[in-house]
Structure of Vacuolar protein sorting-associated protein 62:
Amino acid sequence: MWAARQWHRAIAGFALFSLGGSTIRGTHAAVPDYVVKYADAGLNALAPLVWTHSQDPYQPADIAAQVAHSIPQVKYKPVAGAPSPLTLNNLDQLNALGGKDIFLTSSEGIRALPDWFKGVRPNSDGKTEGAISSTIVVTEREDGVVDAFYFYFNASNPEKWHREHNMIRFKNGQPQAIWYSQHAGGRAFAWDAVNKRGLRPVAFSANGSHALYTTEGTHDHTIPGVSLPIGLLTDKCNEGFLWDPTLSTYSFRYDRASQEFSAYDADTPVNWLNFDGQWGDEQLPDDAEGQVILFGQRKYASGPNGPKFKELDRKNVCPSKIGPCFIRRSLNLQEEEEQELKRVVELL
Ligand SMILES: *[C@@H]1O[C@H](CO)[C@@H](O)[C@H](O)[C@H]1NC(C)=O
Ligand SMILES: *[C@@H]1O[C@H](CO)[C@@H](O)[C@H](O)[C@H]1NC(C)=O
């Protein structure tokens, strides 16, 4: 009971950022240290820190700028009667004009690679100055479970909302497990298994790719979720620029029952989260100039859809498409490989 109440305060503290723990502090003596540590810290203090690759030309980008630079299109044709200018406050109006068939197409064309695709390199504080580049969504579940999703925004065409996100599952205020999305899949780890900087888990965003890893170095992703000893398709990670997504973020609460988002402050635009369409250009046909297909993965794939499609109401820390949710207890993936392969074989 106590833990649940403290945890609700921690969420309130997260909402208002400044609430801190003064009301909590008086009760410290009665509670175990670890509870206090996390309850006091609040969610932001446990948010992931993300290393972007030193040579990645596409750094985290401003979500609103992406919308401002987009022309909504259906089947490569502009949508008639679309709001102009298009903003985060009116983006959901497109739902009545084509919804999921709409692609937020860059004004410059998919292969033009305009400068704003490049995003903003995190500064020495980890902030993407002038760019709100992440979205945090918190949702409460039954039995004291709280899920915090951290979505990382990338303007590079066509991967606007690339699928990169972490999700941390808390139970009675204690972080239990963390999900790292990788291409079409990802991996879940026990909280204690992943590396931290202070209290915060560390993620590595792969160079030229859409995957988050727990460690730097080269990661094979030929079969999503399976670490093959010989890399056919590999992702490369290093400690390039340390990005603190909480310093440049929009934060929301998601109500599972009503499927509604609400912002934690009055200045945060909310409507865009209801947009049903795709954040990017429509996939180039397979025979188009510049299109490359490797093991079924396309260089110019269709832009993905937004956070509300990332299964915010999850039974497990893994999305359900993964099948059985295997929570790794160590970072030694080879040790766990047998189980992973078994899981994949079961899915085939
Ligand atoms: C990182 O990606 C950039 C741009 O695609 C490329 O030029 C660079 O060689 C890559 N670095 C590594 C280590 O793969
Ligand atoms: C952003 O997406 C592009 C294109 O898919 C990719 O090359 C790049 O590595 C991504 N950057 C980050 C920081 O995720």
User: Anything to note?
Assistant: The helical segments are 2-16, 22-25, 33-41, 63-68, 333-347.
